[in-house]
């Protein structure tokens, strides 16, 4: 490798922080290079003030009890960060030096050696400052002042719609900081991204854009554009006798280091070098369920007068991605096409992995994406109320083969699109993030906002909003215009949900994507545009059985609450508060109208009477409810092409729609997902007193063939009925195999007394089990569990006897534990061995293992 002139110096690490009242100090005094900051508080960068104060024991951990409310004073103060570092500068060199902040939260003024270098007003993008003339050889100081937010919104107009808090529309900051219906208000401040110095000579690669134009088995075409910028100072440009000649080498390198395609000595004209790389026999990037997420490395080297001055080196997956809105008959569709193959998107919505975004360790991203893959998810939606995620998130999605639906950060509010400065800020944010993310194989779609178009109509119709649609210029003009210039390679969708034909509203099942909030929130559908929205808070109004009425083309949000796991709750609640109905439990639930969850359980499991029942009943309702909806959506895959659960993860230890709780312990629904999201699904479609339909859904690229076995057991495990059907199901289709009357499988038994099991024989698909009536209508006999722990193998074998054990649950008092299975049903005599491990191979407290079932405990 040739030596490259550009160099990077990481300035992340330990900084110091201090706070003042607004106006208490003169900025120039605190920013002064020589200020004695010995007594300031040590703080990690990246990070934030809350995290630093917790680490030093200055504030109490904000997720314990009501502690978040105790740290509200932080948002009233002016916060300062300082660091010093050494630099060797060659006085004669023509070096150009930039100070890069990957994340500043939010209103920052940056000082270098006491000089004000610039101000920033946006948490949701990186900021680059030219500091060439401010640095000196030897010792240097950087200070960053953060204003309290109120200085920037207190004189601003408030809009009649901004969910959860009124001040945020003017602030380009993660919306969820101000509280959401699953998280507390914790208004963070600080340097949440890495900081570095970049030193260049003569010229630099400003941006690189790589896009796959076409793929086939034999060939792929990758178009690469490099934007080159001269960084010569005015003076040195004029000193030179000849203009600098810049060229680029562009190479694609495989995992064994071989160059598979290249273009050498490309001339840079008008600041651009461009080429099309022809890759023979390309290894394509696929989602993990359809193939291998193969990554090449793309290398662009910039030469100035023959000397290598800059280099870009990034993993790059070759793949095409399209969104189709019609099928061959011209009917509505909303389907992603990956490398020419129409795929079924299975996954969930992603929220920031912690309220304290700057404090999230990279391992948390890796683990959450690993868990998604384990649950057979192939798409995650980065929801608009958070951030454009950190690079590590996309690294993991690229590497693990998960597609990303990326929202722009506009959620549930009106935004001042009439204001020039605001729109300038938004423009910078959009361009900055598009340029950062557009080479990602995982990135499948850009989406303008969360629920704004849809809710604007609902809220206008109900009279809650009387103002014009402020913000629409962002989603309908600014963003699409920027994408056309900077990333025409992938689809853009203005909002989620979006669509609406024949007077139906944006959440219309016949066009675009759809959020199903009949279930849980009780919205009544169908609804026409302009109609007053109606809520039905009743058992029938909120039940998950409503999913079957939903013939959405793509279900991008739907879900239900479930309790967090015992460990997560106990760890974060004061002693004596771990009981159903405690003020602390209620505080964990930020949703409006807690009655919805009760109604949902009332109609399915019955109302819980204690915390144990609450954990069990809410988890069972969520798991069975998601299964009910997702199996339906997947059975109608001639129409529906995606199911993204609301929501994957949690940002604090609360009660929410998440499938994985804050301590990274999956809820029951996660283990159910291993079956309901499996590429080959055996599914029973059934309603009480109606026939049973047996289905096979095949999302793979190959036909599946073999036999489908149907077994019916009574609650004591006696097999009442067994039969098989021959199946042959083509790739990417679903098929009804057989329909039977209830009476046929029940014989002399009642529907409350049986469990139905589907098994694949001769092909691979997880077994799937169903009860024919809701849990509240089934009286389960007591089951006995025997448990055998194998310390050496770190595994546990559970065996049931006497009766079917419903929802067998393994609990350990430790976070991040991975169980190969959990929350399963066992027939009497049946055993299951579950392996357990900690991602850092910590010893597991197996002696404290608790094993239970809804209807049984360890014998
Ligand atoms: C949708 C999401 C979130 C919200 C969730 C649950 O509206 O987009 O705004 O948290 O539903 O209410």
In short:
With 859 residues, the protein is α+β, with helices and mostly antiparallel strands.
Please provide a written account of the structure.
- This protein has 859 residues and is α+β, with helices and mostly antiparallel strands.
- It has 17 helices and 47 strands.
- The strands form twelve sheets. The protein has an eight-stranded mixed β-sheet with strand order 43-45-41-40-47-46-42-44. It has a six-stranded antiparallel β-sheet with strand order 3-2-4-10-7-8.
- The chain starts with 6 loop residues before the first strand and ends with a strand.
- The relative contact order is 0.08.
| Overall pLDDT level | 97
Apparent shape: globular
Largest sheet strand order: 43-45-41-40-47-46-42-44
Beta-strand content estimate: 25-35%
Q: Which structural category fits the helices and strands?
A: alpha+beta
- CATH class wording of the largest domain: Alpha Beta
Small molecules in complex: beta-D-mannopyranose
CATH superfamily of the largest domain: Glycosidases
Largest sheet: 8 strands, mixed
**CATH architectural name of the largest domain:** Alpha-Beta Barrel
How many strands appear in the DSSP assignment? 47
Summed up, the domain count is 5
Share of residues in helices: 10-25%
The Rg value, from CA coordinates, equals 29 Å
CATH topology of the largest domain: TIM Barrel
């Amino acid at each position: 490798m040739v030596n490259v002139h550009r160099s990077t110096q990481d300035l992340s690490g330990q900084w110091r922080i201090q706070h003042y009242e607004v106006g208490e100090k003169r900025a120039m005094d605190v920013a002064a290079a020589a200020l004695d900051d010995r007594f300031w508080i040590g703080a990690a960068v990246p990070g934030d003030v809350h995290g630093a104060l917790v680490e030093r024991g200055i504030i109490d951990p904000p997720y314990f009890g009501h502690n978040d409310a105790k740290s509200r004073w932080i948002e009233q103060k002016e916060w300062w960060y300082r660091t010093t570092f050494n630099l060797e500068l060659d006085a004669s060199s023509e070096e150009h030096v930039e100070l890069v902040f990957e994340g500043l939260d939010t209103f920052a003024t940056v000082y270098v050696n006491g000089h004000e270098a610039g101000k920033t007003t946006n948490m949701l993008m990186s900021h680059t400052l030219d500091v060439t003339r401010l640095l000196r050889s030897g010792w240097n100081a950087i200070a960053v002042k953060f204003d309290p937010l109120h200085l920037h919104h207190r004189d601003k107009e408030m809009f009649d719609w901004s969910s959860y808090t009124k001040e945020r529309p003017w602030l380009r900051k993660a919306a969820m900081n101000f509280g959401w219906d699953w998280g507390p208000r914790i208004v963070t401040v600080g340097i949440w991204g890495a900081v570095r110095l970049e030193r260049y000579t003569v010229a630099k690669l400003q941006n690189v854009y790589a896009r796959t134009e076409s793929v086939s088995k034999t060939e792929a075409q990758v178009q690469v554009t490099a934007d080159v910028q001269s960084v010569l100072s005015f003076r040195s440009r004029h000193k030179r006798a000849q203009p600098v000649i810049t060229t680029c080498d562009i190479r694609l390198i495989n995992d064994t280091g071989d160059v598979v395609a290249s273009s050498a000595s490309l001339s840079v004209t008008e600041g651009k070098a461009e080429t099309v790389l022809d890759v023979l026999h390309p290894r394509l990037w696929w989602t993990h369920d359809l193939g291998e997420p193969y990554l090449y490395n793309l290398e662009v080297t910039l030469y100035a007068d023959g000397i290598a001055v800059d280099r870009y080196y990034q993993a790059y997956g070759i793949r095409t991605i399209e969104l189709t809105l019609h099928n061959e008959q011209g009917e509505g569709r909303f389907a992603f096409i990956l490398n020419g193959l129409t795929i079924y998107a299975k996954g969930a919505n992603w929220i920031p992995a912690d309220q304290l975004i700057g404090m999230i360790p990279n391992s948390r991203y890796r683990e959450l994406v690993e868990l998604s893959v384990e649950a057979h998810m192939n798409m995650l939606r980065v929801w608009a109320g958070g951030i454009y995620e950190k690079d590590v998130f996309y690294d993991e999605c690229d590497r693990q083969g998960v597609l990303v639906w990326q929202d722009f950060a506009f959620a549930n509010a009106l935004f001042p699109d009439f204001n020039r400065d605001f729109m300038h800020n938004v423009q910078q944010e959009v361009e900055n993030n598009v340029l950062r993310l557009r080479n990602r194989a995982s990135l499948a779609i850009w989406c303008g906002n969360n629920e704004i178009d849809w809710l604007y109509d609902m809220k206008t119709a109900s009279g809650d909003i009387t103002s014009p649609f402020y913000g629409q210029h962002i989603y309908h003009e600014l963003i699409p215009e920027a994408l056309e210039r900077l990333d025409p390679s992938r689809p853009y969708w203005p909002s989620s949900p979006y669509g609406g034909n024949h007077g139906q509203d944006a959440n219309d099942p016949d066009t675009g994507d759809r959020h199903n909030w009949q279930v849980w929130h009780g919205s009544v559908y169908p609804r026409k545009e302009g109609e007053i929205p109606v809520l039905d808070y009743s058992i029938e109004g909120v039940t998950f059985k409503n999913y079957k009425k939903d013939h959405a083309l793509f279900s991008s949000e739907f879900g239900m609450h479930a309790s967090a796991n015992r460990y997560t709750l106990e760890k974060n609640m004061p002693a004596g508060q771990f009981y159903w109905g405690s003020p602390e439990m209620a505080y964990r639930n930020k949703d409006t109208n807690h009655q919805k969850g009760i109604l949902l359980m009332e109609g399915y499991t019955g109302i819980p009477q204690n915390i144990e029942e609450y954990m069990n009943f809410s988890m069972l309702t969520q798991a069975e409810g998601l299964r009910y909806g997702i199996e339906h959506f997947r059975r109608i895959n001639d129409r529906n092409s995606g199911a993204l659960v609301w929501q994957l993860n949690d940002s604090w230890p609360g009660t929410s729609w998440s499938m994985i709780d804050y301590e990274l312990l999956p809820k029951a629904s996660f283990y159910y997902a291993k079956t309901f999201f499996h590429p080959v699904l055996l599914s029973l479609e059934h309603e009480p007193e109606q026939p049973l339909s047996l289905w096979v859904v095949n999302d793979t690229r190959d036909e599946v063939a073999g036999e489908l076995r149907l077994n019916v057991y009574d609650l004591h495990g006696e097999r009442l009925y067994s039969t098989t059907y021959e199946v042959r199901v083509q790739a990417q289709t679903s098929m009804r195999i057989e329909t039977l009357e209830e009476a046929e499988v029940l014989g002399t038994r009642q529907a409350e007394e049986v469990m139905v099991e589907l098994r694949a024989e001769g092909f691979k698909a997880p077994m799937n089990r169903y009860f024919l009536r809701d849990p509240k209508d089934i009286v389960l006999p007591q089951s006995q569990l025997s448990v055998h722990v194998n310390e050496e193998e770190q595994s546990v074998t559970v065996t049931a006897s006497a009766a079917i054990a419903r929802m067998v649950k393994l609990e350990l008092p430790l976070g991040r534990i991975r169980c190969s299975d959990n929350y399963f049903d066992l027939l009497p005599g049946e055993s299951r061995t579950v392996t357990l491990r900690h991602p850092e191979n910590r010893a597991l407290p197996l002696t404290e293992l608790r094993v239970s079932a809804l209807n049984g405990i360890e014998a």
